[in-house]
Amino acid sequence: MSFIPANRLFPATRLRRNRRDDFSRRLVRENVLTTNDLILPVFVLDGENRREAVASMPGVERLSIDLLLEEAAHWVELGIPALPNCLESNHSPHRNTR
Fold first, then answer.
1. Most CB atoms closer than 10 Å: which of 26, 51, 56, 67?
2. Residue 21 CB neighbour total at 10 angstroms
């Protein structure tokens, strides 16, 4: 293998070319993950006083509305700003009835 000398005209540093514009700075900056970026999935069941574990998501449960309201007070204390609603209902218009 032959040795190829480095070009002396090429700068040894990149002179912050990735940080010249705001867009570029945002693109290459370090990522910061905070609790504001997290989502707590909530699965709602029909009925009252019902709680079922979600097998594929350890620690996550399907809750009926009454139990969901009790848990929501705890989630507010933890600082969770919003919850996605994953509704499971026998009356869902998108349920396949074939």
1. 67
2. 10
Tell me whether residue 27 is in a domain.
no
The per-residue pLDDT for range 34-51, each reduced to its tens digit, is 777 777 778 888 899 999
The residue that leads in pLDDT, 21 or 86, is 21
Residue 83 lies in a domain: yes
Residue 76 has pLDDT above 80, yes or no: yes
pLDDT in tens, 22-31: 877 777 777 7
Cβ-Cβ contacts under 8 Å for 77 (sequence gap 6 or more): none
Instruction: List the Cα angle 29/33/76 in 5-degree steps.
Output: 150
**Which pair of tokens denotes residue 19?**
């940080």
Q: Are 24 and 18 in contact (CB under 8 A)?
A: yes
Is 46 inside any structural domain? yes
Contacts with 84 (C-beta within 8 Å, 6 or more apart), sequence order: 39, 41, 42
